[in-house]
Amino acid sequence: MFSTSTLQTIYDNLLEIVFYYGPKLLGALFVWILGLWVIKLIVRALQLLFDRSKTDASLKSFLLSLVSIGLKLLLGISALGMLGIEMTSFIALLGAAGLAFGMAMSGTLQNLAGGVILLIFKPFKVGDLIHSHGHTGTVKEIQIFVTRIVTPDNKTVILPNGAVANNEITNYATEGTIRVDLEFGIAYNASIEQAKTVLFEVMKEHPRVLQEPQPFVGVLSLGDSAVNLAVRSYVKPQDYWEVYFDIYEQGKKILDAHQIEIPFPQRVIHQAK
Questions:
Q1: H helical segments located in the chain
Q2: Residue 265 backbone phi and psi in degrees, to 5
Q3: Using one digit for the tens of pLDDT, what is the confidence trace for 239-272?
Q4: What's the number of domains the chain is made of?
Q5: CA-CA distance, 136 to 124, in Å (whole number)?
Q6: Looking at the structure, do residues 197 and 165 belong to the same domain, yes or no?
């Protein structure tokens, strides 16, 4: 059994601890609760701001989570500091760990930064036909780390956002229409006007070809074996490849029907006498 003096000493020590740490604990608890309430207000205000600016849903969720975690981490450090815990070494250790993590995940962080840039500045959106990083396709999904596009041959290409954001992006859908550039070669003895007329009719009758701006057929160049005609029409981005292949096929058929020759490459050799 403990003696009376020992029990008194334990009681005095406990009382001293309570009086010393009690106010600090209550203060830290108050700061923690008040801080969580303030953080909740800040996050809610940011959410309303993002909603009004029509920020992408995935970017909005990521930024709100990032702000919430960062503020709660700072709040936790402040609350622990109020308890008298030395936080200098902890902050230094946290900074060193963050630096090491950043160096190890540099590629991933680059993709993260690229994704944020793409979602904020929006050089393209889902459904746009784009060319980036050597690939052409329709944008299927824009995520924080990667962008998914579907190529004309129905392949899904996953592009890292860091590479997309740091390279040239061609968006064929920005203006709402895209021009289909085709080329037909006809024989030198064929009627240019007749060829222009029948090719123009092919584009005029195609249901996917827009009539405004008006389709165009004109002489592009005088080749070694043929007169090359430029055939131009405007379509919606999603109709590009359908019109591209259809006009080539129908153009060949109508030229054959009107007996307009598409010549093979020829070479004229003059023999010295």
A1: 4-52, 57-82, 88-104, 106-121, 161-165, 192-205, 240-257
A2: -60, 135
A3: 888 999 999 999 999 999 999 888 877 665 656 6
A4: 3
A5: 13
A6: no
